[in-house]
Amino acid sequence: MRVVHVIDHLGAGGAQRLVADLAPRQKQRGHIVTVVCLRHPTQTGRVLETAGVRVHYLRLGRTDPRQAIDLRALLHAESPDIVHTHLTLSCLLGRIAAVMAGVEAVVVHDHEADAEIFTTPAPLLALKRLLEPHLPPRGVRYIVISHSALSYACEVRRLPESNLILVPNGVDIAYLERGRVSSKAARAQFGLPVDAPLIGYAGRMAPEKGIDLLLEALSQLSGVHAAIAGQGPLANEMQAYARKLGVAERTHFLGHLDDIRPLLWACDVYVQPSRREAFGLAAAEASALGLPVVASRIGGLRDIVLDKVTGRLFQPGNVNELTSTIVILLDNVEHAKMLGLAGQNYICQYFTIDKVIDRIDEIYRGILR
Fold it and tell me: Which domain holds residue 16?
Protein backbone atom coordinates (compact mmCIF):
# COMPACT_ATOMS: atom_id res chain seq x y z
CA MET A 1 0.00 0.00 0.00
CA ARG A 2 1.00 3.60 -0.55
CA VAL A 3 0.61 5.36 2.81
CA VAL A 4 1.04 9.05 3.62
CA HIS A 5 1.16 10.12 7.26
CA VAL A 6 0.28 13.78 7.90
CA ILE A 7 1.24 15.36 11.23
CA ASP A 8 1.30 18.92 12.62
CA HIS A 9 4.91 18.76 13.80
CA LEU A 10 7.61 16.22 14.65
CA GLY A 11 8.64 17.57 18.04
CA ALA A 12 8.28 15.74 21.36
CA GLY A 13 5.08 13.80 22.08
CA GLY A 14 3.28 10.50 21.90
CA ALA A 15 1.91 11.08 18.39
CA GLN A 16 5.38 11.82 17.08
CA ARG A 17 6.80 8.75 18.79
CA LEU A 18 4.12 6.59 17.21
CA VAL A 19 4.85 7.94 13.72
CA ALA A 20 8.58 7.42 14.29
CA ASP A 21 7.92 3.81 15.31
CA LEU A 22 5.20 3.11 12.77
CA ALA A 23 6.49 4.51 9.47
CA PRO A 24 9.84 2.61 9.30
CA ARG A 25 8.16 -0.67 10.25
CA GLN A 26 5.46 -0.18 7.64
CA LYS A 27 8.24 0.39 5.11
CA GLN A 28 9.90 -2.85 6.24
CA ARG A 29 6.60 -4.64 5.63
CA GLY A 30 6.64 -3.50 2.02
CA HIS A 31 4.44 -0.42 2.15
CA ILE A 32 5.49 2.75 0.35
CA VAL A 33 5.49 5.28 3.18
CA THR A 34 5.81 9.06 3.21
CA VAL A 35 5.51 11.44 6.17
CA VAL A 36 4.29 15.00 5.64
CA CYS A 37 5.02 17.48 8.43
CA LEU A 38 3.30 20.88 8.38
CA ARG A 39 6.17 22.58 10.23
CA HIS A 40 9.97 22.58 10.08
CA PRO A 41 12.59 19.77 10.31
CA THR A 42 13.32 18.22 13.72
CA GLN A 43 15.43 15.44 15.19
CA THR A 44 12.52 12.99 14.88
CA GLY A 45 12.28 13.80 11.19
CA ARG A 46 15.97 13.12 10.75
CA VAL A 47 15.55 9.76 12.51
CA LEU A 48 12.80 8.88 10.06
CA GLU A 49 14.93 9.89 7.10
CA THR A 50 17.84 7.80 8.43
CA ALA A 51 15.43 4.84 8.51
CA GLY A 52 14.71 5.37 4.81
CA VAL A 53 11.33 7.09 5.18
CA ARG A 54 10.69 10.09 2.93
CA VAL A 55 9.74 13.19 4.94
CA HIS A 56 8.25 16.33 3.37
CA TYR A 57 8.17 19.58 5.38
CA LEU A 58 5.70 22.31 4.46
CA ARG A 59 7.56 24.75 6.79
CA LEU A 60 4.42 26.84 7.30
CA GLY A 61 2.82 28.45 10.36
CA ARG A 62 -0.22 27.01 12.10
CA THR A 63 -2.59 29.62 10.64
CA ASP A 64 -1.06 29.81 7.15
CA PRO A 65 -3.78 29.00 4.55
CA ARG A 66 -1.14 27.66 2.16
CA GLN A 67 -1.01 24.49 4.29
CA ALA A 68 -4.17 23.09 2.70
CA ILE A 69 -3.05 24.05 -0.82
CA ASP A 70 0.45 22.60 -0.48
CA LEU A 71 -0.88 19.49 1.22
CA ARG A 72 -3.41 18.88 -1.53
CA ALA A 73 -0.66 19.22 -4.16
CA LEU A 74 1.59 16.76 -2.29
CA LEU A 75 -1.17 14.19 -1.91
CA HIS A 76 -2.09 14.54 -5.58
CA ALA A 77 1.54 13.89 -6.53
CA GLU A 78 1.93 10.94 -4.12
CA SER A 79 -1.42 9.38 -5.08
CA PRO A 80 -1.62 7.30 -1.86
CA ASP A 81 -4.03 4.49 -1.09
CA ILE A 82 -4.29 5.69 2.52
CA VAL A 83 -3.90 9.10 4.14
CA HIS A 84 -3.24 8.64 7.88
CA THR A 85 -3.57 11.89 9.86
CA HIS A 86 -2.27 12.74 13.36
CA LEU A 87 -3.05 15.67 15.73
CA THR A 88 -5.91 18.15 15.43
CA LEU A 89 -4.92 20.46 12.60
CA SER A 90 -3.51 17.68 10.40
CA CYS A 91 -6.63 15.59 10.98
CA LEU A 92 -8.78 18.43 9.65
CA LEU A 93 -6.54 19.73 6.85
CA GLY A 94 -5.32 16.26 5.87
CA ARG A 95 -8.85 15.00 5.45
CA ILE A 96 -9.90 17.99 3.36
CA ALA A 97 -6.74 17.79 1.24
CA ALA A 98 -7.24 14.05 0.73
CA VAL A 99 -10.74 14.59 -0.62
CA MET A 100 -9.51 17.38 -2.91
CA ALA A 101 -6.74 15.08 -4.16
CA GLY A 102 -9.16 12.24 -4.85
CA VAL A 103 -7.97 9.92 -2.04
CA GLU A 104 -10.88 7.80 -0.86
CA ALA A 105 -9.40 6.17 2.27
CA VAL A 106 -8.49 8.26 5.34
CA VAL A 107 -7.49 7.20 8.88
CA VAL A 108 -7.99 9.93 11.48
CA HIS A 109 -5.75 9.13 14.48
CA ASP A 110 -6.95 10.83 17.66
CA HIS A 111 -4.00 11.30 20.03
CA GLU A 112 -5.61 13.95 22.23
CA ALA A 113 -9.07 12.71 23.29
CA ASP A 114 -10.70 15.24 25.66
CA ALA A 115 -7.45 17.24 25.82
CA GLU A 116 -8.56 18.85 22.55
CA ILE A 117 -10.70 21.29 24.53
CA PHE A 118 -7.50 22.65 26.12
CA THR A 119 -5.21 22.52 23.07
CA THR A 120 -7.47 23.53 20.17
CA PRO A 121 -8.50 27.15 19.53
CA ALA A 122 -12.24 27.57 20.08
CA PRO A 123 -13.13 28.49 16.45
CA LEU A 124 -11.24 25.47 15.08
CA LEU A 125 -12.80 23.20 17.70
CA ALA A 126 -16.29 24.48 16.86
CA LEU A 127 -15.64 23.91 13.15
CA LYS A 128 -14.36 20.43 13.89
CA ARG A 129 -17.43 19.57 15.97
CA LEU A 130 -19.74 20.81 13.25
CA LEU A 131 -18.09 19.21 10.24
CA GLU A 132 -16.20 16.15 11.43
CA PRO A 133 -19.05 13.59 11.60
CA HIS A 134 -20.19 14.54 8.10
CA LEU A 135 -16.96 15.10 6.17
CA PRO A 136 -16.14 12.84 3.22
CA PRO A 137 -14.73 10.47 2.19
CA ARG A 138 -16.96 7.52 3.04
CA GLY A 139 -13.83 5.40 3.59
CA VAL A 140 -12.81 6.99 6.90
CA ARG A 141 -11.90 5.31 10.17
CA TYR A 142 -11.15 6.94 13.52
CA ILE A 143 -8.44 5.45 15.73
CA VAL A 144 -8.68 6.26 19.45
CA ILE A 145 -5.96 5.29 21.91
CA SER A 146 -7.84 4.49 25.13
CA HIS A 147 -11.23 3.46 26.47
CA SER A 148 -11.83 6.97 27.84
CA ALA A 149 -11.04 8.41 24.39
CA LEU A 150 -13.52 5.97 22.86
CA SER A 151 -16.27 7.15 25.20
CA TYR A 152 -15.41 10.78 24.48
CA ALA A 153 -15.50 10.19 20.71
CA CYS A 154 -18.95 8.63 20.96
CA GLU A 155 -20.58 10.89 23.54
CA VAL A 156 -19.01 14.30 22.83
CA ARG A 157 -17.71 14.21 19.26
CA ARG A 158 -20.75 12.17 18.14
CA LEU A 159 -18.71 10.03 15.79
CA PRO A 160 -20.34 6.87 14.38
CA GLU A 161 -19.39 3.85 16.50
CA SER A 162 -19.02 1.69 13.41
CA ASN A 163 -16.07 3.82 12.29
CA LEU A 164 -14.32 3.99 15.69
CA ILE A 165 -11.49 1.59 16.50
CA LEU A 166 -9.47 1.39 19.72
CA VAL A 167 -5.73 0.97 19.10
CA PRO A 168 -3.39 1.92 21.97
CA ASN A 169 0.02 3.43 21.35
CA GLY A 170 2.69 0.77 20.96
CA VAL A 171 5.75 0.06 23.08
CA ASP A 172 9.01 -1.08 21.48
CA ILE A 173 10.12 -3.54 24.15
CA ALA A 174 13.21 -4.75 22.27
CA TYR A 175 14.46 -1.15 22.03
CA LEU A 176 13.77 -0.50 25.72
CA GLU A 177 15.84 -3.53 26.74
CA ARG A 178 18.67 -3.01 24.23
CA GLY A 179 21.95 -2.19 25.96
CA ARG A 180 20.33 -2.24 29.38
CA VAL A 181 22.70 -1.59 32.28
CA SER A 182 22.29 -1.93 36.03
CA SER A 183 20.48 0.69 38.06
CA LYS A 184 23.81 1.70 39.60
CA ALA A 185 25.47 2.21 36.19
CA ALA A 186 22.45 4.12 34.85
CA ARG A 187 22.49 6.44 37.87
CA ALA A 188 26.17 7.10 37.34
CA GLN A 189 25.40 8.49 33.85
CA PHE A 190 23.39 11.30 35.45
CA GLY A 191 25.35 11.69 38.67
CA LEU A 192 22.42 10.38 40.71
CA PRO A 193 22.90 8.96 44.22
CA VAL A 194 23.62 5.24 44.09
CA ASP A 195 21.90 4.07 47.28
CA ALA A 196 18.99 6.48 47.80
CA PRO A 197 15.41 5.50 46.83
CA LEU A 198 14.73 7.09 43.42
CA ILE A 199 11.45 7.96 41.75
CA GLY A 200 11.39 9.05 38.11
CA TYR A 201 9.29 11.09 35.69
CA ALA A 202 9.71 11.84 31.97
CA GLY A 203 7.55 14.22 29.96
CA ARG A 204 6.73 17.83 29.19
CA MET A 205 7.17 20.40 31.93
CA ALA A 206 3.61 21.69 31.58
CA PRO A 207 0.74 22.38 34.01
CA GLU A 208 -1.29 19.33 32.97
CA LYS A 209 1.58 16.97 33.84
CA GLY A 210 1.35 17.59 37.59
CA ILE A 211 5.07 17.93 38.30
CA ASP A 212 4.24 20.30 41.16
CA LEU A 213 2.32 17.44 42.79
CA LEU A 214 5.37 15.19 42.48
CA LEU A 215 7.56 17.83 44.16
CA GLU A 216 5.02 18.30 46.96
CA ALA A 217 4.96 14.55 47.54
CA LEU A 218 8.76 14.50 47.55
CA SER A 219 8.77 17.12 50.31
CA GLN A 220 6.98 14.55 52.52
CA LEU A 221 9.35 11.69 51.65
CA SER A 222 12.47 11.76 53.77
CA GLY A 223 15.65 10.67 51.98
CA VAL A 224 13.92 9.97 48.66
CA HIS A 225 15.29 11.50 45.43
CA ALA A 226 13.47 12.30 42.18
CA ALA A 227 14.87 12.36 38.62
CA ILE A 228 12.78 14.50 36.26
CA ALA A 229 13.40 14.53 32.51
CA GLY A 230 11.80 16.96 30.10
CA GLN A 231 11.50 20.52 28.92
CA GLY A 232 8.56 22.88 28.68
CA PRO A 233 7.03 26.17 29.80
CA LEU A 234 7.26 25.32 33.52
CA ALA A 235 10.91 24.19 33.56
CA ASN A 236 12.27 27.22 35.42
CA GLU A 237 9.18 27.54 37.61
CA MET A 238 9.40 23.92 38.78
CA GLN A 239 13.08 24.33 39.69
CA ALA A 240 12.16 27.39 41.74
CA TYR A 241 9.30 25.47 43.35
CA ALA A 242 11.69 22.67 44.33
CA ARG A 243 13.87 25.25 46.07
CA LYS A 244 10.83 26.73 47.83
CA LEU A 245 9.78 23.29 49.11
CA GLY A 246 13.31 22.54 50.30
CA VAL A 247 13.77 19.55 47.99
CA ALA A 248 16.15 21.06 45.42
CA GLU A 249 19.07 18.91 46.60
CA ARG A 250 16.95 15.77 46.19
CA THR A 251 15.41 16.78 42.83
CA HIS A 252 17.49 16.15 39.72
CA PHE A 253 16.23 18.05 36.66
CA LEU A 254 17.79 16.29 33.68
CA GLY A 255 16.37 18.47 30.89
CA HIS A 256 15.35 16.98 27.56
CA LEU A 257 16.61 13.45 26.94
CA ASP A 258 16.63 12.02 23.41
CA ASP A 259 16.82 8.62 25.09
CA ILE A 260 14.91 8.16 28.37
CA ARG A 261 15.92 4.51 28.81
CA PRO A 262 18.81 5.16 31.25
CA LEU A 263 16.41 7.17 33.43
CA LEU A 264 13.95 4.27 33.53
CA TRP A 265 16.75 1.77 34.19
CA ALA A 266 17.89 3.91 37.14
CA CYS A 267 14.57 4.28 38.99
CA ASP A 268 12.92 2.28 41.75
CA VAL A 269 9.43 3.67 41.04
CA TYR A 270 8.01 5.59 38.08
CA VAL A 271 5.42 8.30 38.79
CA GLN A 272 2.98 9.88 36.29
CA PRO A 273 1.05 12.51 38.32
CA SER A 274 -0.80 14.06 35.36
CA ARG A 275 -3.94 16.13 35.70
CA ARG A 276 -4.93 14.95 32.22
CA GLU A 277 -3.32 12.35 29.96
CA ALA A 278 -4.62 10.97 26.68
CA PHE A 279 -2.42 7.87 26.90
CA GLY A 280 0.83 8.02 28.91
CA LEU A 281 3.53 6.37 26.79
CA ALA A 282 6.35 6.92 29.29
CA ALA A 283 4.32 5.13 31.97
CA ALA A 284 3.76 2.22 29.57
CA GLU A 285 7.49 2.08 28.80
CA ALA A 286 8.36 2.11 32.50
CA SER A 287 5.92 -0.72 33.10
CA ALA A 288 7.38 -2.66 30.15
CA LEU A 289 10.75 -2.55 31.92
CA GLY A 290 9.25 -4.01 35.09
CA LEU A 291 9.07 -0.78 37.09
CA PRO A 292 6.16 -0.35 39.52
CA VAL A 293 4.16 2.62 38.23
CA VAL A 294 2.14 5.15 40.23
CA ALA A 295 -0.25 7.13 38.03
CA SER A 296 -3.29 9.40 38.20
CA ARG A 297 -6.65 7.73 37.81
CA ILE A 298 -7.43 9.52 34.52
CA GLY A 299 -7.59 9.03 30.74
CA GLY A 300 -5.41 6.42 29.11
CA LEU A 301 -3.42 5.85 32.30
CA ARG A 302 -6.32 3.72 33.53
CA ASP A 303 -5.73 1.39 30.57
CA ILE A 304 -2.00 1.13 31.23
CA VAL A 305 -2.11 0.71 35.02
CA LEU A 306 -4.59 -1.75 36.53
CA ASP A 307 -4.85 -0.57 40.12
CA LYS A 308 -3.16 -2.91 42.64
CA VAL A 309 -2.61 -5.44 39.84
CA THR A 310 0.00 -3.94 37.52
CA GLY A 311 0.65 -0.70 39.44
CA ARG A 312 -1.08 1.82 41.67
CA LEU A 313 -3.53 4.60 40.80
CA PHE A 314 -4.27 7.68 42.89
CA GLN A 315 -6.92 10.37 42.71
CA PRO A 316 -5.70 13.24 40.47
CA GLY A 317 -4.42 16.16 42.51
CA ASN A 318 -4.42 14.27 45.81
CA VAL A 319 -0.86 14.79 47.08
CA ASN A 320 -1.40 12.83 50.30
CA GLU A 321 -2.64 9.78 48.40
CA LEU A 322 0.25 10.08 45.93
CA THR A 323 2.73 10.27 48.83
CA SER A 324 1.30 7.33 50.71
CA THR A 325 1.21 5.22 47.54
CA ILE A 326 4.89 5.89 46.83
CA VAL A 327 5.71 5.00 50.46
CA ILE A 328 3.90 1.66 50.10
CA LEU A 329 6.02 0.73 47.07
CA LEU A 330 9.33 1.93 48.50
CA ASP A 331 8.75 0.21 51.86
CA ASN A 332 7.46 -3.08 50.45
CA VAL A 333 10.01 -4.19 47.88
CA GLU A 334 8.38 -7.58 47.23
CA HIS A 335 5.00 -5.97 46.58
CA ALA A 336 6.63 -3.46 44.23
CA LYS A 337 8.41 -6.25 42.34
CA MET A 338 5.17 -8.21 42.03
CA LEU A 339 3.37 -5.20 40.53
CA GLY A 340 6.32 -4.49 38.23
CA LEU A 341 6.38 -8.04 36.90
CA ALA A 342 2.61 -8.09 36.39
CA GLY A 343 2.82 -4.75 34.58
CA GLN A 344 5.62 -6.02 32.35
CA ASN A 345 3.57 -9.09 31.37
CA TYR A 346 0.49 -6.95 30.76
CA ILE A 347 2.31 -4.50 28.46
CA CYS A 348 3.95 -7.38 26.55
CA GLN A 349 0.55 -8.96 26.03
CA TYR A 350 -1.44 -5.95 24.87
CA PHE A 351 0.74 -2.95 24.00
CA THR A 352 3.68 -4.05 21.84
CA ILE A 353 4.42 -1.97 18.74
CA ASP A 354 4.13 -5.04 16.47
CA LYS A 355 0.59 -5.72 17.69
CA VAL A 356 -0.29 -2.08 17.04
CA ILE A 357 1.09 -2.22 13.49
CA ASP A 358 -0.79 -5.47 12.82
CA ARG A 359 -4.00 -3.79 13.92
CA ILE A 360 -3.40 -0.70 11.81
CA ASP A 361 -2.67 -2.86 8.77
CA GLU A 362 -6.02 -4.58 9.35
CA ILE A 363 -7.71 -1.17 9.44
CA TYR A 364 -6.05 -0.16 6.16
CA ARG A 365 -7.13 -3.38 4.45
CA GLY A 366 -10.64 -3.04 5.81
CA ILE A 367 -11.06 0.47 4.41
CA LEU A 368 -9.72 -0.47 1.00
CA ARG A 369 -12.07 -3.45 0.82
Answer: 2-170+353-368
Give tens-digit pLDDT for 28-44: 999 999 999 999 999 99
Contact 232, 204 (CB under 8 A): yes
Taking the C-alpha atoms of residue 248 and residue 240, their distance in angstroms, rounded to an integer, is 8
Torsions phi, psi for 121 (to 5 deg)? -55, 140
Regarding whether 33 and 59 lie in a shared domain, the answer is: yes
For residue range 50-83, list pLDDT tens digits in order: 999 999 999 998 889 899 999 999 999 999 999 9
Tell if the pTM clears 0.85, that is, is over it.
yes
Query: What phi, psi does 293 have (nearest 5°)?
Result: -115, 135
Could you tell me if 140 and 209 lie in one domain? no
What is the DSSP secondary-structure string of 32-85? EEEEEESS---HHHHHHHHTT-EEEE----TT-THHHHHHHHHHHHH--SEEEE
Single-letter code of the amino acid located at 22: L
